[in-house]
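User: Continuing from earlier, I have the next pair ready.

Assistant: Great, send them over.

User: Here they are, in order.

Assistant: Folding the first of the pair now:
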Amino acid sequence: MEPDLYGASDGKAVGTHLEQKFQARLRDKQEYQAGSSAKGIDFPELRVDIKVTSIKQPQSSSPFKSARQKIYGLGYSLLVFVYQKTDDHEAAAARLEILHTIFVDKNKTGDFQTTAGLRKILDNDGNEDDLIAFMQERMLPVDDIQAAELARELLQNPPEAGYLTISNALQWRLQYKRVIEAAGAVEGIVRVR
C-alpha cells in the first residue's frame, strides 16, 4: 500500500515513485553506478533505461536524438514496468500492482511499422530511391541529405525488426502494447515477470 499515491492521477508521479523504490531496493542488493537525468538513462554502464507506465495507456517519452532511432533503435535497452493503480478508500492508500516487467533489448527498440516497411522494401530488392520515398511517406524527421545517407546505410545494414511504436514529436512517444504482446515470444524481448 502506498499512502503517498492515494488519489494521484499523475502517471509521472506514480512512475517516479515506482522507479525510486526499485532503485532503492536494487541498491540494497547490488552495487552499481546510478544514472542521472544528464546522462539520460538509469543504468549507463549497462545501457539500460527504466520505463514505468500504466496499463491504461502503456506509453512514455524518450529524448529525441535522430530519425535513426526509429530505424535502428534507441541505442539502449529498456526495462519496462507496467502497473495498475487502484485506490483503497478505506485505507486512504493506493495499491500498485506490477502486471508486466519486460526487458527489451536495444536491437528491438526501433519502430515496428518503420522497420517492417523498410525490411519489406529491402526484401523486394528496393533501391535507394524506394527507401527515401518510404522515409518521406512516413514523415521521418530527416532532410534530403540525411534521407539519402540513411538509405545508403540501410542497403548495407538492414534494420532488425523493432517492437515499439514511436510517434514523431519533440520527444519520442514510446508505446508498449506490442512489446507486452511479444514478450517471451520474440528473441530480445523477455518477460521478467
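And the other member of the pair:
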Amino acid sequence: MSRFSREFFARNTLAVARDLLGARLVRMFDGQRLSGVIVECEAYVGQTDTACHASRGWTARNAVMFGPAGHAYVYFTYGMHWMLNVVTEEIDFPAAVLLRAIQPVEGIETMRVLRQKKGRPRTDRELTSGPARLTQALTVDQTLNGADLVSGHELWLEPGDSFSEAAVASGPRVGIKYAAEKDRLAPWRFWVRENHYVSG
C-alpha cells in the first residue's frame, strides 16, 4: 500500500486534519497489521494556540512537535493514557493533529485482546472510539514517540477513501477547559457524521 509523503503532513494543520479523515492508520504488532480508518481528529496549531502543548515553548516533552512533519508525537496524560498525534507544518512551527478515533479494519480480534479489562471483552464500539482506546488497541506508547510515519516500519498512515464535505462535521475540541476562550471555541475538531466509532 502507498503511504502519505512528508509533503502531505508539512501543510496547514487544519487542512491535514480534514484530509486525514478516511485515511488508514496502520500499526505492525508481532508481525500483524492492526489498522483502522480515521474518523475523528483534532488540530493543534502553534504557540499562539493556548490549547497546544507548545504554547509555553519548547520542552523535552513536546520537542517532537518542533521537528519535521510526518512524525508521531506520543504523550502521557491523566497519569494513565497515551495520546497519538501526527506532527504537521514546517520545522520549528509546533503543530500536530491528535487522532481521536478510528474504525477498525484489520486485526480486530487482536485489538479485542489488547482492550480487555479484567477478562471482560469490549464491544465493537469500545475498541477504538476515543484517543486512549485507540492507543491501547494499537499498542501505542512512549516507544513510538518520534516514530517516522513516512518511512517507518512500526506505525504509518495510508491514503484511503475520502469523505464528502456533507459527511464531515467540525466543532470545538475536547478537554481543553484551560485554554483561552477563542481556542476553546475554535472548530478544530473534525469527525465523520453518524460514524459508530466517533468518541462520545
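Worth noting for the second one:
The chain has one domain: 6-192. The first helix runs from residue 6 to 9.
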